[in-house]
Specification:
The protein is mainly β. It contains 1 helix and 30 strands. The strands form 7 sheets. Strands 1, 2, 5, 6, 7 and 8 form a 6-stranded antiparallel sheet that branches. Strands 3-4-30-29-28 form a 5-stranded antiparallel sheet, with no helix packed on it. It is globular. The termini are far apart.
């Protein structure tokens, strides 16, 4: 596994860092329909407080036979994307985006598209939604303005290379993708100006589903040191366009293991690894300001379906339960439990303030906020 990983990483050393500027393209298919009012009272809303966290449950109203492809939220509302599958097909014949406002108890259909396609990667900012649309062998990153209801194309990717996994905060949108030279790069969109930059062409992503998660204006990713050829984490500061920290994998004793996911806060670097059984139940933590290593902080050895950070704590989605781990306190507590066969899907952290997930069993969206 080590030789294979190093061969893949070595391919990242070929070219210098590129500069790229992009802008929006408003050439949108005429079949797009927006602003269709379709409001109805949500079926139910509930809220509970558990160990310092507020858990809100919003019941949603998916149509019979439709799929919920993704969810997101901002300070004002929750959004979900649903699709009506084409029989025996791999795409949807109709896709809709719904806004659910907790303050008014109303659902509103804000976007509809009626051509064979597939949408996912829904991400919300205070004034826009972003998503990826797959259609006619093309992938398009699109922006939907919540105020004007205008739809624009951020970037068109004609070649099928890697899954495009979007991440955002209130100012930036980020993703990993290959450039024309087949080098894996970190792309960052400045939402206000509409410009796209190649922040790094040294990315050594282990999993095609790794995300460029933004926390406090920073992104962490795996890379290969151009001088020592040593695998390391890079911590990138978006505002100043600079890598502020390089941390070798060997400090954690994982230089021969594959990294599944990494995310950085203003204090901690967190990442998960794949063990010999192709499972990733270990989560490592490091205070990169002081250099203190916390090792594996998944003390309860909780099944790791996915994890997200909320402040300096970690929320672990154990598929049918939510756990909160604190590396400094060494604590681990369960704040939500569902049936064994239930699933919690589509986990997002919005602007480092709240965590949202799709509770499939109860046809609802959960929003978790630290009190």
């Amino acid at each position: 596994m080590k030789e294979k990983r190093l061969l893949l990483l070595a391919g990242l050393l070929i070219l210098p860092i590129l500069a790229f500027q992009g802008c929006y393209n408003s050439d949108i298919n005429s079949q797009v329909q927006t602003g269709q009012a379709n409001q109805e009272k949500i079926s139910s809303y509930s809220m509970e407080e558990v160990d310092g966290y507020r858990i809100e449950q919003f019941e949603i109203n998916p149509n019979e036979g439709w799929n919920i492809s993704d969810i997101s939220a901002n300070e004002n509302a929750i959004y979900y994307m649903k699709g009506k599958p084409i029989p025996a097909g791999q795409v949807d014949g109709l896709t809709q985006v719904v806004e659910l406002r907790g303050d008014t108890g109303k659902e509103e259909l804000i976007y509809s598209y009626d051509q064979p396609s597939f949408f996912n990667e829904l991400r919300a900012t205070p004034d826009s939604l972003f998503w990826v649309r797959f259609e006619n062998e093309q992938r398009k990153i699109e922006r939907f303005n919540l105020k004007s209801r205008e739809l624009t194309i951020v970037r068109t990717i004609s070649e099928e290379r890697h899954p495009i996994c979007l991440e955002t905060d209130s100012k930036y949108l980020a993703w990993f993708d290959e450039n024309d030279m087949k080098k894996l790069c970190l792309y960052v969109l400045d939402i206000a100006s509409g410009t796209i930059r190649v922040a790094s062409d040294e990315v050594a992503r282990q999993s095609p589903y790794c995300r460029a998660q933004i926390r406090n204006g920073r992104i962490a990713f795996g890379a290969l040191n151009k001088v020592t050829e040593e695998a390391e984490f890079h911590i990138y500061d978006i505002e100043n366009d600079v890598v502020v920290k390089k941390i070798p994998f060997r400090l954690f004793g994982v230089e021969n293991q594959d990294i599944r996911k990494c995310v950085v806060t203003d204090r901690f670097l967190y990442f998960s690894v794949i063990d010999d059984n192709d499972e990733d139940n270990s989560i490592y933590a490091m205070d990169y300001n002081s250099g203190v290593l916390y090792g594996n902080i998944n003390k309860a050895d909780t099944y790791l379906f996915s994890f997200q950070t909320l402040g300096d704590e970690i929320i672990i989605n154990a598929r049918n339960a939510l756990w909160v781990n604190n590396p400094v306190q060494g604590s681990s507590k369960k704040i939500l439990q569902r049936r064994e066969e239930a699933y919690l899907l589509s986990n997002n952290v919005i602007m480092d303030r709240f965590f949202v997930t799709h509770d499939e069993e109860n046809s609802s969206i959960l929003r978790v906020t630290k009190m």
